[in-house]
Structures are given as C-alpha cells and as structure tokens.
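Lab notes, practical 5.
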Amino acid sequence: MPRVFGFFRNGGRLAWLLIAAFLVSAVGSTSLLADTAEVRYGRDVARMVFNDNLDLLESVRRETGVAADTLERLRASAATPGVRPYLVISIADNRLWYRQGDSVLFTTGVATGSGKTLVRGGGGAQWKFDTPRGRMVVLEKEEDPFWIPPDWHFVEAARKRGLGVMHLQRGQSVPLGGGAVLTVVGSDVVRRNADGTTVPYTATDGREIVANGNIIIPPFGTNQRKYPDVLGTHRLKLGDGYALHGTNQPQTIGRSVSHGCVRLRNSDIATLYDMVPVGTAVYIY
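Output from the prediction step:
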C-alpha cells in the first residue's frame, strides 16, 4: 500500500491515466451510478444519525424518491474527466490537484479531517471529524464567507477551557448579577442592564460568550453565531456542510487536523476560486 500511495504522490502519468479510465467507465455505467447513489445516500444518512443531525434526517425521511433524485443528479452532473477539468484530493497525502486529462493545471497542499471523535458528556451527541471519500461536486462559490459554527464547536471549546455548555433560546434570559441578564434582542445576543440599556456581545473563534461558568451557544440567525475570517477569503461548497475553503491557520496545511472540510492557504483557494466553475467534479480518496 505505501508503494501505491507513493506512486500517486509522484503524479505518475500511468496512475492518472488509470484513474481517468476508471472514472470514464464509471460515468458510462448506469449500474455503477446506481450503486454509487445508493452507497452515498446510505453514507449520508448514517452520518446524519452519527452526528445527531436528526432534524435533517427527518426532513429526508419525509421526501419521496430521494434515491432516484440522487441518481438523476449524478447522471446530470457527471462529466468525462478527459473533457472537463476536475479536482482530486488525497487524504493520505493532504494534497489537491486540479487536472484536465493527464495535465495538472494546479496543485497544492491541503489540510483534511483529523479522524477524531468528540463525545458530548452525559450520553449526548458525538461527532466524527472525517473528510468524506467519494465523488462530490462544487455546488456554490462564495467570497468572504462567514462560518456558522455547529454545536460541536462550542462543546469542543468548553472542554478545552474546563467550562460547561448552555444553549440560549430566543425569549430566554440568563441572570448575570446586579439586575443584568443575557438575552436575545433582534439579531443580537446582548447584555441587558438593570436600567434597560443593551450591549451586544462580540463573539468569534476563541472569544465565545461565557456566562456563569458556561460557554453560551447562541441561536442560529444571530450575529454572534456568525464568525468572520475563520474560513479565509473564499469557499467552494460541496454540500452536507463540507467545503474547500481558506483558513486563518495556515500552519495547519499539510496535516490531518480539520473537522472534515478541506482547508487551503488563502492564496491557493483564491486561485481555485477563479479557476474552478460550479459543477466541477471533486474526487476525494
């Protein structure tokens, strides 16, 4: 196995021709597409259950013809790698190639999922930080993206700092002492003082809201649940919460340290943003 990965790492022409031949045959095979759709659908459902994303799972259950729709999307978006450029990402090598046929248009190092599992105490949710393998598609491109941190971010931050975690609900007030409360007003989590004046909190990665020994998880839709700069300058969305994006931690490139997304240096994701159109196939192995 190390010899095989070494061969891919060196970008051998024969290796890439074999990949291209396999992908072309896969695109041309209806039965293989059907199998791929079924496997991906099963994997996505399993991941939703594992990550405790039950709201999304329930919405999927209410849909009809999901597997058929997935197959049609695969057929519609499938493109012969020799005709259209495509992205290849090696998790083992933490490297990305933008290729057309056997030509490399761009290549760079990346950071991928750590593979770690975070378990919330008291028999709660657990999250697995893997970069998914398989075929994905660039669904959307975004400049200056905000990060909407999932619940696991606050659980992880609280564990590092020896704090508890508390979900803040709209309409809820958390006493702070001296007659002040922490609450939500409009789109902001604020400190409401005894005299009725309000002061919005500032929150970002590493500067979460803390009250009464707990890291506060702001409601979705509030400004305190939107972190700027964490995802770098650009993002290519792949769906299901995964993306290729920049980073404010360039020292992590080349390592398996992310929570599942593929990180690039800001200069590299800016280059890809200009080069890669929506609909581009992404092969992760």
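Observations recorded by the TA: Residues 30-50 form the longest helix (21 residues). Residues 151-225 form one domain.
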